[in-house]
Automatic annotation (TrEMBL):
Residues 1-44 are annotated as: Disordered. The lineage of its organism: Eukaryota, Metazoa, Chordata, Craniata, Vertebrata. Residues 17-32 have a biased composition (Basic and acidic residues). Pfam families: WD40 (PF00400). It comes from the Eukaryota. PROSITE patterns: WD_REPEATS_2, WD_REPEATS_REGION. This is Cilia- and flagella-associated protein 251. It comes from Onychostoma macrolepis.
Length: 964
């Protein structure tokens, strides 16, 4: 291969572009004629598709201005209202027409059509995984989005209506889509898979076929191909590139092939740099690739000996355009356009001669450049002059630029004026808080930026960038709305004015080097508490010093030995004084002595273990729906518990929302001013979903609804002061979503689930007609007979209840073996259920109450094999074969000394029942244990021979519950 010097002049480039032989020109004409035929065929198929849907909005819509506003009745309990933020790694596309300035960008798994003219958003929802690439047709009528994840989707949208017109399901099951492109006539769609072995597919999306027209697998040695483009003059040619290799594709009659021309530093004896983007020249023959060294690689076709032979290209020149890395390379009309790391945008002609530069807008690294579909005005009046000697008017289309710092700017080419459309958080956004009295929401990110929005008018109110400490982890308003507390990953804490975001007193408070995870104010705004990753709680108190109010340190306590899950202020009902509680992964609920705490330390008033095996995840004060005051907690085992606020006694356990992951944060919605005061609701988040729950809690699954909010994980939740909106922060996706709550729809959904006991019958295997329900009835009636003496000849008393003392035996008969603590919780739940109203204990239970007790207390899923593995790895030792075993004597000692202690007689009775030994053997416990237990007990022996599990039941069960 011949090489040229990297210092080639523009004149040489021009000569290369002009020197074509007659045979080559004839070939190009043939290719162009074929392309025109295919383009006409594509239009015909599109028109045919439109005729099939002549009655739809897609067919009748005529322009972008026809995007419908959300005036229809909301039919879902949660409706996505607004998206704050953007994915700065993906391009921002201009959908501008004569009337409206509209852009398209990505927020997590949602595509956002932002109408800057009317300050409105149209949200394109359909993906369940993060969107990884997008593109638009040349006329901006069709939009395409694709994601990367399980069961990935490619969706083609109608830009005029926001309606999805075609969906390709799991077209790249190996890992989703990493790049895609539409042909100039919009007929063909090309996709590149994201698997280890990438697959390139060409789809005719206008037909009903579920298979691609053609496909080819790429060699992994060429790197991850993350850029893809059709030749605008020939649908049968494409180009893609990774950071190290450019690939050219040719396809015809269902066959797709590619070539990988060599390109290294040795090709032109100069530093090449990593490859960024590739385009075709507007002549349709040459191609260009930009690099991080500021170079442009020029590709040209090799001479063909046969007219129908596929076009083969090779690198013929390396042009050093600049020193700075080129991050964007695109084509518009007759200009080649570049964007670089300095935020400069440059326009070149087809011979790479510089025409104009935009370098006065103070932008950071350019991520994308997208031009309006509207052609510039015929008149050149008002346009700036270009860089050439004759200084002609530089007439181009308006365009939108996006940067790596999450900024989108619209450039009016005629007036040469930039207009900032978006300026969002460019780093993980972990913190969000709602003002307690105004329609304001504050957001804080790891870039040190706090931004406050008016979510009613969709306007940014104020912002501040913290310079000393950057990573904001959590924020919260005080109940009066005067202060905003900000916690940083450095352990620093700042309290700023809620209106101006400025600090009145000491700029920074720091009492820990550990990251702040929770912040909460007391109801009277006198106290502020902070929890950190050091498992400690710090308390500050607001007091006066002269004429100023300052926050003074009141103490700090390492109150947990595992991470703190939640921190909460409350009010003592007797004294009306503030109460402070913390909840840890160590299963302890700690209350602090605020009255006697000072600079010497934060004192603990009480510390209670509230769970045995479950790990609590969050807590909140239960609304006053009963005469008693309760604290509500959630756990990783999909259970919610109500604890008496004073005694800390567990008074109720219910089966909580189960949507693939446990509840991690809860927020009680304010009572409606116009509605029923007894109708209360709770918002919550799980690992990736946001949900809403009807109160009071009773375990009815139809009273809860959840949907995906951030597919990569949601970090926190906040609710508006009027209870109409919930806000979720996505952390790594740099996005906050605003959700409108439709409580009437939730009530309707709950009503459709059935009244009275029907939802609880449906939680039983087989429902009311199943075997489990029949067994419940039989056991229940047997308990009644037994309590009236089985052998009596007297007339029996008809009853619908059994004594509360029989509940443990009935639970075990049904295959649920609760611990003694769980049995005590059940007894207390029934015993005190009417105590506040009647001052009397409940001593019996009917069948319906028992069914509710059973479905709410039983485990959400069965015993998993992995649980046994973890137990044996923790308690046992590996044998010669690597299997973990437990010594028989050690196991017996553990059962008698750890956890809920068992006596030797209890153990003997249990093992007698489990292994089926005769009662005589139980008289000598030592010989019994030796006869039924081997000296070394493996997990398989324990599960199969002792517990009686079959090999099939030892498999991991499926996760309980499914998404609504």
């Amino acid at each position: 291969m011949s090489t040229t010097n990297g210092t080639s002049t523009d004149a040489e480039t021009e000569d290369t572009g002009e020197q074509k032989n007659t045979e080559d020109n004839q070939i190009e004409k043939e290719v162009h004629n074929e392309d025109e035929d295919e383009e006409e065929e594509g239009r015909s198929e599109l028109y045919s598709l439109r005729e099939d849907i002549a009655d739809s909005q897609v067919y009748t819509a005529t322009s972008l201005s026809a995007i419908p506003k959300e005036t229809r009745t909301k039919t879902h309990p949660l409706v996505l209202d607004w998206a704050y933020g953007m994915n700065q790694t993906l391009p921002v596309l201009s959908l501008q027409d004569e009337d409206r300035l509209v852009i398209l960008y990505i927020c997590a798994h949602v595509a956002v059509m932002n109408d800057h003219t009317s300050n409105a958003q149209h949200l394109l929802q359909g993906h369940c995984s993060p969107i990884t690439c997008l593109c638009a047709s040349e006329d901006r009528r069709w939009l395409v989005t694709a994601d990367m994840g399980q069961e990935s989707l490619v969706i083609i949208w109608d830009a005029y209506t926001g309606i999805p017109v075609r969906t390709l399901f799991d077209c790249h099951p190996e890992g989703g889509v990493s790049a895609l492109a539409l042909s100039k006539d919009s007929k063909y769609l090309a996709t590149v898979g994201a698997g280890a072995v990438q697959r390139v597919c060409i789809w005719n999306w206008t037909d009903e076929s579920e298979s691609p027209e053609c496909q080819v697998d790429l060699s992994p040695k060429y790197g991850c191909q993350n850029q893809l483009l059709f030749n605008p003059f020939n649908n049968t040619q494409l180009v893609s590139n990774s950071s190290t290799q450019v690939l050219f594709y040719n396809w015809e009659r269902g066959h797709l092939e590619y070539s990988a021309p060599e390109i290294t530093d040795k090709t032109f004896n100069m530093a090449l740099g990593s490859l960024s983007q590739s385009i075709f020249h507007y002549d349709g023959v040459q191609a260009f690739t930009a690099t991080s060294a500021g170079n442009i690689v020029l590709w040209d076709k090799q001479t063909q000996t046969v007219s129908r032979q596929p076009v083969v290209r090779k690198a013929v020149k390396l042009v050093a355009l600049q020193k700075e890395a080129i991050t964007v390379l695109t084509l518009n009309d007759s200009f080649i356009v570049t964007g670089d790391v300095n935020g400069h945008i440059k326009f070149y002609d087809g011979n790479l001669k510089l025409i104009n530069v935009y370098n006065e807008f103070s932008l950071d690294t350019i991520r994308s450049i997208s031009f309006s579909k509207e052609k510039p005005s015929i008149s050149d009046l008002g346009y700036p002059k270009d860089c050439r000697l004759d200084a002609k008017p530089f007439v181009i289309r308006n365009f939108v630029v996006s940067t790596t710092h999450a900024t989108a700017v619209h450039i009016n080419a005629q007036r040469n004026v930039p207009q900032t459309l978006l300026k969002e958080h460019a780093e993980p956004l972990e913190a969000v808080a709602c003002h307690p009295k105004q329609p304001l929401v504050a957001m804080g990110s790891h870039s040190g930026t706090i931004k406050v929005w008016d979510y009613k008018h969709k306007e940014a109110v104020c912002s501040r960038v913290f310079q000393t400490h950057k990573q904001i982890q959590c924020i919260t308003y005080d109940p009066q709305g005067f202060y905003l507390a900000v916690g940083f990953a450095s352990g620093a804490l700042q309290i700023v004015d809620a209106c101006t975001l400025q600090s009145d007193g000491k700029e920074c408070l720091q009492y820990s080097q550990d990251s702040i995870t929770h912040l909460t104010f007391s109801q009277d705004s006198r106290y502020l508490a902070a929890a950190d990753t050091g498992k400690a709680v710090t308390l500050l108190r607001r007091c006066k010093e002269g004429t100023q109010e300052v926050w003074k340190y009141q103490g700090r306590h390492h109150s947990h030995y595992k991470p703190i899950q939640d921190l909460l202020f409350g009010v003592d009902l007797d004294s009306s004084q503030p109460r402070l509680l913390s909840l840890g992964m160590d299963r302890r609920l700690v209350e602090y002595d605020l009255q006697n705490s000072g600079e010497d330390g934060l004192l603990i008033l009480s510390s209670e273990r509230i769970e045995q095996s479950a790990v609590p995840t969050c807590m909140v004060w239960y609304p006053p729906l009963t005469p008693e005051h309760f604290l509500l907690t959630a756990s990783n085992l999909y259970k919610m518990k109500l604890f008496n606020a004073t005694s800390k006694m567990c008074r109720k356990t219910v089966f909580g929302p189960s949507y693939g992951s446990p509840v991690k944060k809860m927020a009680i919605l304010p009572a409606s001013k116009d509605g029923d005061p007894n109708s209360r609701y709770m918002a919550y988040i799980t690992q990736d979903k946001v949900g809403i729950q009807i109160l009071p809690l009773d375990g009815n699954p139809h009273k809860s609804f959840a949907m995906i909010c951030h597919s990569t994980g949601v970090s926190t939740l906040a609710c508006s002061y009027d209870g109409r909106y919930a806000f979720t922060a996505g952390g790594q996706d740099c996005t906050v979503f605003s959700w409108e709550l439709n409580l009437a729809s939730l009530e309707a959904s709950a009503a459709l689930g059935g009244k009275d006991m029907l939802p609880f019958y449906n939680l039983l295997e087989g429902g009311r007609d199943g075997q489990l329900f029949r067994e419940m009835e039989e056991y229940f009636y047997y308990c009644q007979l037994q309590n009236q003496d089985l052998d009596t000849m007297e007339t029996r008393l008809v009853s619908t209840h059994i004594p509360l003392a029989d509940v443990p035996f009935l639970m075990r008969a049904l295959g649920f073996y609760p611990t003694e603590q769980e049995l005590e919780d059940m007894q207390n739940e029934v015993k005190f259920s009417r105590y506040a109203e009647t001052r009397n204990y409940v001593t019996d239970i009917d069948l319906e109450e028992f069914i509710k007790l059973y479905v709410n207390h039983r485990p959400a899923s069965g015993i998993a094999r992995q649980e046994l593995c973890n137990a044996f790895q923790g308690l046992g030792k590996p044998d010669e074969e690597g299997r973990y075993t437990i010594d028989r004597d050690e196991l017996l000692e553990l059962l008698q000394a750890r956890g809920e202690h068992m006596t030797e007689d209890d153990l003997a009775e249990c093992f007698t029942n489990l292994v089926g030994s005769s009662g005589e053997g139980a008289s000598c416990t030592e010989s019994l244990f030796e006869s039924v237990l081997p000296p070394e007990i493996s997990m398989e022996t324990f599960a199969t021979d002792i517990l009686g599990f079959s090999a099939a039941t030892q498999e991991l069960p499926q996760e309980h519950g499914q998404d609504l």
